[in-house]
Design goal:
The chain is mainly alpha-helical. It is 67% helix and 0% strand. The protein is built from five helices and no strands. The chain is extended and about 45 Å long.
Length: 84
């Protein structure tokens, strides 16, 4: 099985170290496998919380000021850019 290396923010690393009983390589491996499966099956969906987090707090403040159609367009644009 091939090995990969990844970088994570220092604060996340510190939090991971607090949970010594968790096999983080298994968590990451499962997350990647699930993501690839969802991509291949066309089932990659994003929750509202994930979308707002990705778009940032400035977007969330402006959200009440845009129409539903604009929100759908922004979502489609984001989905195209992050899933390709």
């Amino acid at each position: 099985m091939p090995d990969i290396t990844l970088s994570i923010p220092e604060e996340v690393y510190k939090k991971m170290k607090e949970h010594k009983g968790i096999r983080w390589t298994e968590v990451v491996k499962k997350a990647i496998m699930d993501y690839v499966y969802r991509l291949e099956e066309g089932k990659l969906e994003v929750t509202t919380e994930e979308l707002l987090e990705e778009l940032g707090s400035e977007f969330e403040k402006e959200l009440p000021e845009i129409s539903f159609e604009q929100a759908v367009g922004l979502y489609e644009n984001w989905k195209t850019n992050t899933c390709n």
